Each structure stands twice: as structure tokens, then as C-alpha cells.
């Protein structure tokens, strides 16, 4: 493997260099400097130091040592403070400064002492070459010598959803003497685990939170199904399957696919995914000297884009799945559907796997009265669903870009195809699928999105390893973990095939536990925990876990039960349901940490037992979700309902004793709600029903004020007119 090391070193982002605080101890030579010369005049010293700072020659010399204008200024401020505030300076520095103040030395003589101080507060300056070598990510294939020592056969199974590509790869996996399946989701790993054991091929399960060995004595089976982050790059296999290879470009998780592809020690590597990844995988494998054999598959059942939108929930049919990109929409739509006497299943990302499976089973069961599914794009992979028609409620989704910034974006062709492809599955009762939108205006946009070819994949993700961060910490022992990672990324060099994955979640956790005394390896492991940072209860639990761990006190079952308030009651409203989902995440976090620190998280079996009970409680809540929504907000109205339904409902729900007169402002707002802007804002998650009500109140208030001032003006004009008439009569 050849490296292009000729490229110039990357200029570091010096804003990340945090100065180290120096101890203000009396120097070893005490007051020798003052005894040999004389005490220093602070006013004279200040003038001398400021002259030194202004000399261009000194700034240029410092720049050659890696100090840009920012670092030079920071270092000078620190050096000046040190010189002026220390009761006793080192003898050599004291003598030099005394000579300059007495005109017996040159200002430039300060430079070596200034640099000595600078390298003490910015230790990275002295080891910049070493830091650059550690953070050089240009040849990641060389990180896996065991994989490079064997000649691997790479087979790419390319095709759209429901084309049988993964099926063919799994058949080869089942026929092998040993194998590993690497998938993006726990649900997919579970599915292969069950499928393999059902086929008489003993298979273990390894996810971040779970290890299941089929052998009663705990011996490893020849086959293992795992989530991709958990695959071993040291264990030899005959066959490895890497599913959803297009996720190699994912801004947060792409590194796991890169690691599996470059590092798995398997005679055959079978990758499954979109055809848009074929050329890139070929190019990537060229750097390892491995050829790629491509098998192309076509979709087994067709799906067609309809020429009309659904427009009203009255037009829903059995086998429909409405896809939303926000939980608010899911709550709103599920309530409206059930108000029409229809039952619906609900699936979204933060539900526990057991609840997702039970909702999928309910929807798939031909004997169940539930015929409608409301879901997020969580259905895009990992669940087998009998869907006849996919209905996009919106085409705009909140996204996190490579810089970690959240933004609303129209879904990509790849995302649209992944979701649309769930309609009319080969194994379902619906042999042909249909795709449309809820809103008329969205249908031409969807057709446009689906008419494009998927953007080819051009880069693969990388992430600094624990070993690389440890080497960095050895060079910079006083830096925080968050700062270490920042400096690592700023210095890291990647070639054109790679990018460094977003590390914001890692830094968020690192900053949260920075004040807790942990060794670096433990701190790094805690910060790689997969937690939902939007959930305050999960974050506070993470903090408590780290604090308890740092005290060397095991986190027992009783301790966890006290923390989460176990046993927990069934949810009475949506807020309760969201909290129960957060508690489920906290138990997941415990299990995840238990496999990394077994002695400190000892009660996995009991935690898993209460997690199963909690899953059942959440399932009950989701089955009664419309009742929970009503309990949360009994007056919740939906601005997305068609105009006729809105007016009918307003009439039916109005209190007969209440006055039926409405103000001009309220009528105007009702009209606004029925137009596309308000409905789109709510639909896309940019405006909540509560905010909409607040707008309605403010609108009404402004209209009343406007009406009041208008009445006053009219009265004033009338008075003036009457007075004029009286004058004329006189």
C-alpha cells in the first residue's frame, strides 16, 4: 500500500491550544538573581517587555517555531504576568532582565526565556511533529495487519430494497464453516441470529448491550450476528457479511463500516447495499490490492408512484403506512385516524426494539383489526412489514450535517427510495407497492426526487481510536479529553477517499464528565457510549453512572432501581411515555457499560429482566397512544385537517351555550391555518400546535386593539362632524 506523504503538513487550528497553568513555586535557585544584581523595577520591566512584544523580528522568530499571531499574543500575556507577578524569578532570567533595564543587554535577549515559558504553557509546540504523525489518517488500510496478511475475496451484492441482495449474501454465510454478520441495527442482528439458529447453524448474538451464546457453557459458536460497531477485526472467519454498505458515508457512524470493510479477517467479504456505492468500494479495495466481484439484483416486486395525493385521512385504505419525520406528527395523525374509528400501529426510533416488533406484528397480522401504520423513517430498515401503500406526510427532515449542525432538508433520493421500497415486499401479502404523498403540493416534488439517480458515494468515515488518543494524551497530559480530540481532528490528515466523522456527541459527553476523576481509557469508553443527548434524564443518569464509577462503587441493581424509581407505573400521558422511553435508554446504557466494566456493573441479568418488564409497560402505552395524547392535551386540534373537516369539527365540538360570534381576527387565522404555510410549518416540525394557539391569541389581541383604535377614531370623527353641523345652524 502506497502513501502520498508528500502533501504539506496541515496548519493546526491554534484556537484549540489551551494554555497550561504554571505552578508559581519559588524557583530552585531562590533569590540568587536579586542577590547577584539588584531588585527589578516593575515599571521599567513593563516598558522593556512591551518593546519586546512590538518587535517584528521577535514575532517572525516565534512564527518559525509554530506561534501564529494568536499564540504569540497569548504567550506574551502569560509571560508578562509571570515576570511581573512572581516574587522571585529564576536567576538566569532575572540577570538578563536586570542587564536590559541597565542598558547592558539587548531586548532580543529575552527571546529564549520567552520561548522557554511558551513551551511550558503550550507543550504541544515541542511535540508537533509527533502529534502530526499520530493523527495521520492517510492510510487506514495499514491499521489492520491481520487483514492485510490474507488475500480476501470481496463480493458486492448491489441492488435496491427488496431485491434479494442480502438474502443471497446470507445463504453464503449460512453455508460457511464460520461467519460474521455486521448490520446497522440491533433488530437486523436479532433477525439473522434467529434465522441462523432456525436453519440449524449455531449462531451467537453480539450487540452493544447484549451477548447471547447458544452454547450453554458459553463457548463461542462458529457464526455470530452483531451490530457493526461490535464486530471483531482479530477473529478469523470464512465469510463476513457487511449490510447497508452505503452507510460508510454516514457523518456519525461511517467509521464502523470503514473499519469492518478494511479490517475483517475473512476469506470472503460480502457487502450488500446500493449500486451507488460500487465504484467507490472498488476504488477503496484498490488501495488494499483486493478485487471486487459485483452481483447486481433487480427489485422482486414493483412499486409505482401514484398520480394523486391522499389529501384526507378519510381516504386511507388497509395496508397504508404514513411516514412522518417528527413525533409530533405521529401523535397528531394517530389521534385523528382513531377518531375516524380506525385502529393504527405506531413505530418511531426511540421506541424499544420489543415495542417496535409488537407494533409491526399487530400491523402485519391479517386477523388483527389494525390496518394502518403511522411511522417515522425508522421503518426504512430492520422491520419486515406488509405495506401496500407508502404515504409521505412530509418530504422535509431534520438533518445533522458533517459539521454537526442541525438543519431542515428535503430528503435525498437514497432516503426516499429506502422508505418507498418498503411498499409491496416480496414476502408480504401485497405483491405490488404504491407510493404517494399526503399533500397535493408534495407529489410532484416526490416524483422529481425519485426520478434522480442516487448520488454516488465518494468518501468513507474515520474516527480516532482509543490508542491514538492515548498517544496524544501522553504528549499533552494536561489537556482535557474534549480538547485532545479537537486538536487531533484539527491536525489529522486524510486522503481524498476519507473524512473524519462528526465527534460532537463524543465531545458533549467528554465535557459533561470532565470534572469527574477517571483514567483516560475509562473516560474514552464512557464518551463512546451511544446515548440520546436530547433526553435530560439520560444525561443526568450518565453523569451519575460516571460519578459512582469514579468512586469505585459498583452500580448495583438496588442502586439503579432507586435512581430510576422502579417499579414504574403505566403511562398516563405522552410525557410519562417519553420518560419511560428515557428510562429504557438508561437501562440500555447500564447494559452497554456492563460489557466494558463487568465488575462495576455486575447485575446485568436483573437489569435485563426489569427492562423486559418496562418494554411491556411501554407497549401498553403505545397501544393506548391516542388516550395518552388526549390526556396530554385534550383540546389539541390539528391544523392539517381538510377545510370541510375543520369546519364540521368546529361546529360539532362547540359548546352550545357559548356565543357563536367570532372576531374578524379569529376568522382570518382559521383561514391562515387552512392554507399551506401554517400546515407546512406544523407538518415539518418548525411550529407546534401550542405555538399555533399562542399565535392565534396574539393575532386576536392585535385585532381587538386595532378594532378598538378604529372605533375611537370613528367616534372622534363623528363628534367633529356634529360640532360642524351645529356651527352651520347658528
TrEMBL record:
Reactions it catalyzes: ATP + H2O = ADP + phosphate + H(+)
EC top class named in words: hydrolase
Main localization of the protein described in the UniProt heading: mitochondrion
A Pfam family: DEXQc_Suv3
Extent of Polar residues compositional bias: 633-648, 657-666, 705-719
Known EC number: 3.6.4.13
Keywords: ATP-binding, Helicase, Hydrolase, Mitochondrion, Nucleotide-binding, Transit peptide
GO terms assigned for molecular function: helicase activity
Superkingdom as given in the UniProt entry: Eukaryota
Comp. bias regions, Basic residues: 721-730
Cofactor dependence: Mg(2+); Mn(2+)
Record-given protein name: ATP-dependent RNA helicase SUPV3L1, mitochondrial
Protein species of origin: Ilyodon furcidens
Gene this protein is translated from: SUPV3L1
